[in-house]
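Field log, afternoon session.

UNIT: design team B
ACTIVITY: writing a sequence onto a fixed backbone
BACKBONE:
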């Protein structure tokens, strides 16, 4: 009996390590393909051929291809909330269309859609975990838990924020679900998966080069009394952006349903291309654009930065609801940083310390209002901001979550 229990525990630990390793490898492969594809489409081709209105052409034709692909194979990739909702409700997730899911996750990102890659990754990882549950006897009992472990490992590696994946998956779960799985601490299980995921990702990056880079980290600055006094204004600005996100999400969802498939995606691609031609910063997920913004924000008018923040959110919802689908975490962080820079410049001028703290609080309130998971938001923003700001980032995220919920009547 004791030997059987020990064997079961070892199988559990081993399988979680395998899930983590595969998640790390999948994240690396996806980002590597995106890096190569993006370089070919957006640097190599326009560098050798003069094509008028190149951005509009690529976005429109690419979006039409995505529309045809979705019409033939289905509504992929599914958003992370949809995937985890199916897992919770149906206790299963369909995995037979795995190749379709991978292609559907890549296409919108390659044409510069204002989205992040986490939505596509979630569906693929969860599908693989349920495949294991259906085909491997020892994995069947805990397929749901394995899928949560896989998603947590993927998100943590993707965002370079080890604890974010855990809190994103678990913050809304019951306390019992967080603490135990077959008599084993779930924290320990996550630790095994995260270690394997991080190790595989780092190893592949060292051997073959990394893919797309993550968000740049802000420099450590001293925070003054004026910054703490302005926190309420920054939180309000973040809440305004969060409400704008929710309203445009609903508006786009209603409006795009009235447009036939393929035409819907094509029109979204055309709008994306036009906006990208006029304001390149609103394209793609926002990581590289934020690095540029951190160096060049003084070259922009404050109102222009605030306008870019709203436009980024609008385009993200347009892309997601029109079929150029992906995640929203990366674009929302970029929008929050733009708003933070713009508001701080209006209130304090161009002093860097004021800028950095403002972007942290605005972004935390914005993410708190959209995610409703203050701890997950705090862990996520450690990839950009100093850990010693933990309290202020958490307060802003919690205030954003509560404030937006009150405004929405929830």
């Amino acid at each position: 009996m004791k030997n059987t229990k020990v064997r079961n525990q070892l199988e559990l630990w081993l399988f979680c390590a395998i899930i983590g390793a595969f998640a790390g490898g999948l994240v690396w492969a996806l980002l590597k393909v995106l890096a190569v594809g993006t370089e070919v489409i957006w640097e190599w081709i326009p560098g050798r051929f003069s094509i008028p209105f190149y951005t509009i052409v690529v976005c429109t034709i690419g979006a039409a291809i995505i529309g045809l692909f979705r019409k033939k194979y289905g509504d992929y990739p599914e958003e992370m909330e949809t995937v985890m909702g199916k897992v919770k409700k149906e206790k299963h997730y369909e995995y037979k269309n795995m190749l379709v899911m991978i292609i559907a996750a890549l296409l919108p990102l390659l044409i510069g859609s204002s989205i992040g890659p986490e939505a596509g990754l979630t569906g693929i990882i969860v599908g693989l975990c349920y495949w294991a549950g259906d085909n491997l006897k020892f994995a069947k009992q805990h397929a749901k838990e394995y899928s949560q472990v896989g998603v947590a490992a993927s998100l943590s590696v993707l965002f370079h924020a080890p604890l974010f994946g855990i809190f994103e998956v678990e913050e809304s779960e019951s306390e019992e679900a967080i603490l135990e799985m077959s008599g084993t601490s779930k924290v320990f299980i996550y630790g095994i998966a995260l270690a394997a995921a991080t190790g595989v990702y780092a190893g592949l990056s060292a051997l073959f080069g990394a893919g797309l880079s993550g968000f740049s980290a802000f420099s450590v600055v001293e925070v003054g009394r004026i910054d703490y006094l302005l926190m309420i204004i920054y939180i309000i600005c973040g809440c305004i952006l969060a409400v704008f996100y929710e309203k445009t999400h609903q508006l786009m969802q209603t409006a795009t349903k009235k447009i036939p498939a393929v035409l819907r995606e094509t029109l979204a691609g055309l709008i994306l291309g036009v906006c990208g031609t006029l304001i390149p910063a609103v394209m793609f997920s926002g990581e590289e654009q934020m690095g540029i913004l951190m160096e060049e924000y003084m070259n922009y008018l404050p109102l222009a930065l605030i306008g870019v923040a709203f436009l980024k959110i609008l385009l993200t919802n347009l892309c997601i609801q029109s079929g150029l689908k992906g995640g929203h975490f990366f674009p929302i962080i970029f929008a929050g940083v733009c708003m933070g820079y713009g508001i701080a410049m209006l209130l304090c001028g161009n002093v860097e310390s004021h800028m950095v703290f403002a972007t942290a609080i605005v972004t935390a309130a914005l993410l708190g209002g959209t995610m409703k998971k203050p701890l997950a938001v705090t862990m996520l923003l450690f990839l950009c901001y100093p850990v010693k700001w933990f309290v202020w980032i958490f307060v802003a995220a919690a205030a954003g979550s509560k404030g937006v919920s009150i405004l929405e009547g929830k």
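LOG NOTE: The chain is about 75% helix and 0% strand.
NEXT ACTIVITY: expression trials, pending approval
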